[in-house]
Amino acid sequence: MNYSDIHTAIREWYATNGRHDLPWRNTDDPYIIYISEMMLQQTQVKTVLDRHFHPFLKRFPTLRHIKEAKLDDVLHAWQGLGYYRRARYIYATAQIAAPKLPTDPAELVKLPGIGKSTAHAIAAFSSHRPVAVLDANVKRILCRFFAKKSAAPKALWEMAEVLLDRKEPYIYNQAMMDIGSTVCTPKSPSCHLCPLQSGCMGQSDPIRFPQKRVKKPRPVRYRKLACVRNETGLLMRQRKGELLGGLWELPELDEMETTAEKIGEVTHEYSHFKLVAELYESNNRNLPGTLVTYENLTTIPTSSLEKKIFEKLKLL
Ligand code: SF4
């Protein structure tokens, strides 16, 4: 099938309706595009734009600045975005690629934490290479356009390649993301406003595509945490490992300590589970960690859970 009419409609739609004002769309610097893509993977455009994108780039204007920083500083600048693995990947990528990120997708996917879609986004938006971007919005459009109730990654990439506008990959990819977030929305798509309508096979009942997976309730995990403190500070330890590695947290309560008094609890939702953190006042100075002064609690990298704990303990 020839999609040239649809490509023309998409270009026209983008000229009138596209979000041209987004700062990562007014640059061809692969580093800036890369940072925006990493932030946008798990975080809404508005949150990224209002709170994180500009402060992060002010602190780390180039990949070289990330390379020369400490991981702690990068994690600290990432605070509030969650999914800290992304910040560690950015740091690891800077150690390999600085001073300049490549723009060839084949080179980009070799770097830590850069998948095919992110590589394609950097390549398409920095150097207008004819490659498709496949974020959650685009996946939904493709399933509806080709009337697929479900599609494995390989099939999604095939559909993305079939529909791609190779003449104007920059406009096409930006437009598809915008159409997904404003027109072909999950619950109420506005097909009458959509530039893909003339070829869309799912428009008679778009909500059927893709078929929703029944979500299982998130399991609940419990942790007992020790609040060991004096008049100057609180005992904290730096986490190791993949999940939240590098962030500071309260140490676990020693289960043998029977005199610790429960002083409250804080809950936090992660992508795969809900955590209930039970807080215990403890005098156990043998727990692993460092006494962090109350003033420094805001300067060390911590997760959103720790922020909630600090608020509960009235430390912020
Ligand atoms: S025509 Fe409707 S279902 Fe098809 S891509 Fe456009 S908004 Fe989505």
SSE layout and pairing:
Blueprint: H1 4-17, H2 30-40, H3 45-59, H4 63-68, H5 71-77, H6 85-97, H7 105-108, H8 116-127, H9 136-145, H10 153-163, H11 169-182, E1 220-227, E2 233-238, E3 248-249, E4 261-269, E5 274-281, E6 290-293, H12 304-312
Parallel strand pairs: 1-5
Antiparallel strand pairs: 2-3, 2-6, 4-5
Helix pairs in contact: 1-11, 2-3, 2-8, 9-11
The structure holds iron/sulfur cluster (SF4).
Written description of the protein model:
With 316 residues, the chain is an alpha+beta fold. The protein has two domains: 4-208, Endonuclease III, domain 1 (Orthogonal Bundle); 220-312, Nucleoside Triphosphate Pyrophosphohydrolase, CATH 3.90.79.10. 40% of the residues lie in helices and 12% in strands. The protein contains twelve helices and six strands. It has helices at residues 4-17, 30-40, 45-59, 63-68, 71-77, 85-97, 105-108, 116-127, 136-145, 153-163, 169-182, 304-312; strands spanning 220-227, 233-238, 248-249, 261-269, 274-281, 290-293. Strands 1-5-4 form a three-stranded mixed beta sheet, covered by helices on one side. A three-stranded antiparallel beta sheet has the order 3-2-6, with no helix packed on it. Strand 4 (261-269) and strand 5 (274-281) form a beta hairpin. Helix 1 (4-17) crosses helix 11. The N and C termini lie far apart (60 Å). The relative contact order is 0.11. The model has no long low-confidence stretch (mean pLDDT 95). Iron/sulfur cluster is lined by residues 141, 144-145, 183-184, 189, 191, 194, 196-197, 200, 202-203, 206.
